[in-house]
Fold these 2 entries.
Entry 1:
Amino acid sequence: MYGLRKNKYEWLNENNIKSTEWQVLETTSENNFFVPRDVGKESEYHQYFDLTKAFFIFKNGLSTDRDDLFFDYDKEVLSKRIKLFFSKEYSREFKTRYRIVASSSYDIEARRGQTCFNHSNIVRTLYRPFDKRFLYYDPKLTSRPGWQVMRHLLHANLALLTCRQEARKGFRHILCTDTLAGRTAVSLETRESCSVFPVYLYPTSSNNSLFGDLYWPLGKDGRVPNLSREFVEEFAQSVKLKFVSDGVGDLKKTFGPEDVFHYIYAVFHSPEYRRRYSEFLKIDFPRVPMPKSKQLFSKLCNVGEELVKLHLLESLILEDEKKRPRFPVEGNSIVEKGYPKYVAHAERPQKGKVYINKGQYFEGVKPEVWEFHIGGYRVCEKWLKDRRQRELSYEDISHYEKIVIALGETIRLMNSIDEIIVAYGGLPIN
């Protein structure tokens, strides 16, 4: 039973085992779920390609175990703090605040002794959706560096972020990044870690043939696609195109690893895909359906590419002044305690306001944009909540305006994905 304790007690007082209407559960040997589940689409869904077998390498996002110490919005502030950390000339207050004491899983002082400060270790990292921060990243120091995957994201790259488990309100654990990514980039701190699937793998300086088993010709800077041969061959057979191992193809005769990425990104943003396979998305990574035609593949590639540009905040549409929310009131621009607060406009939904304090607000935020979740986060709310007691700079305000546009366009494109899929026969699309 779910709900208030009072209601549960009342029900228990009025009922017993014999008077209760029980529901018989039929469990399968693989998972033995002790909850009612709709598995009518199971055979259909399991014909799709396992994401963990499509990508050669993937791993959980990095974790520092001391985010307050190793992350910051300001690069120079972070640099000064880490220099002090390495100097060991900090106060007891500093040591307490940043928990510079060994734990059972992370001996921070011993790790510090294995390395020294290097300014080049300060890199941009996706901390939460649309929230890139500076991180001091050193595999010898970082608690869980995820080096096997993260080293490939120190170069020009793209990566898919998703989780093995969904949020309670539905599958929304999908995002992309072109930087390092933390374990909470699309997931809640206490429930699950996001996994990172890079598009390309780069060789080390000492071993240029590290990925010989992948059979791919070397591309830019010696990189190869992080895709299994079995997956690519099945994909190529489905779309009747030749695979090129770097960049994109022309989608008439060839396709590349980035085209595959864009296609997957579009499919995973399909509302119908999320609804139809919701039972299976609760328990494992999403699976990839093969496109039934070259035309469907091409159209979904184009939409997926638009989504990627929006989520990396690189789309030209983000510069459209007509789409931008307004921040019309002057003030100290501090996100005060108890904020942000959303106030809907009863007659004109497009005029919704997000207040950051009593007098200042962003105007032009639709309710569906305010409610839009990625992973476990209501994006427009979480981004501001993480900046409570901070003054928003001009760049921060501009960044938030772009987030609002990006989410609005994401909703529009998600609907168009379903329209495209329906036009080609609907799900299943292979």
Entry 2:
Amino acid sequence: MLLGPADVLEIEREACKRSLSTFVREAWPVLEPGQPYVHGWHIDVVCEHLQAVTDGEITRLLINVPPGTMKSTLVNVLWPAWEWGPRNVPTMRFIGASHEQGLAIRDNLKMRRLVTSDWYRRRWAIDLTGDQNQKTYYENDATGFRQACAVTSMTGRRGDRVAWDDPHSTEGALSDAARETSIRVFQETLPTRLNNPDSSAIIVVMQRLHQDDVSGFILAGDYGYTHLCLPMEYDSKHPHRYTRDPRKKDGDLLFPERFPREVVERDKKIMGTAATAGQFQQLPAPRGGGIFKNEWWRYYDVLPRIKYRAIYADTAQKAKEKNDYTVFQCWGAVDGGGAALIDQVRGKWESPEMLVQARAFWNKHKTFSGAGRLRAFRVEDKVSGTGLIQTLKREGIPMQGIPRNANSGDKVTRAMDVAPSVESGLVWLPRNAPWLSDYTGELSIFPNGSNDDQVDPTSDAISEIILGKGGYRWDGLT
């Protein structure tokens, strides 16, 4: 038997009722007629969590996802429209707030455009009342409403759903006063805006901008929040890893259909290491730096007097995009105490090119006569580093393997060992080096960043030059 138009509509209504994700797909051409719908698995996951709120399984939800992944459209536009229509709860009262009222109004208008569209009303006849139909507030004929407001003016009405989308602006997150205001709103205002404290829901959705942002406050306390965290690049060691994340390899992308590798790398380059860690990876650096505080470094315009120099290296196992870089750093022992980073080169190189770069870096500094003698080339003696040591040693370069054993600890332990030397003002960096921003950015968020290749040679150099550790005595060299 052929299905008639009424049958098709009924099937579609039932499919949308069962699945918010299905409704998203069906409603998208109406909501965004000029943009093709691009699906990602994360949309299903976010919808699954929002649907759990609708079903009463979750009443407090924190979502951390990168920008551009449909978080606002899902939470503030499609989900409330789905509850009113497909789930047949038009009495639902929804308050959508943001750090700026204009953003909340934007989503308010999108939802109104959707629920008043011919497509929506043919399937779910929701009528808005004429006397309460404004851009910041409108009601339907079942007493449900949708309100948009700035988070600082969230007073008056109470809702069954309070969704806080982007509590901070990127600039405001850097302000102690602005963050404190947002956290005070979270503590004192949001709980009082609920119709039913035992069953009404609060949803906070945002990208991470600061360790002490609203998400950081929620995660540091025991407030009963379900946490969904989806970083742009998969990190198996992420402290808030989503246990059902289908990605298995570090570096796998969240939404490659919309953000392919070349786009992610382009954006990471302009954003810088710190912003990437927060907004993409949802792991913002602690204020002022993590193990290495930003204010600890000393800078030079003219290289201090150097007694001797050495090169330290961290070699990556593979050159693929998702792997770490290989880095070569030239360090000098400062006359009078301390260590100075003189130069570095960094790249993703296959073994033959890595050998060329290592040789060239050595020769460059071997011929430099303005800063003490270049005494050795220090490389961790494993995997690609072992081959580098063997090859360059045959060419007469004084290669020295850096031993790693149970007593040397992991990267974090080694970094913590040398951090007091940095804090004491014994480590100098070149103020105008083109690579300085990436260097300090990586060290400021370590161990939460996606790369840590510049950390180990820094730790090795400070450990040996300042602390006299590392199993290699410089005093015996001439």
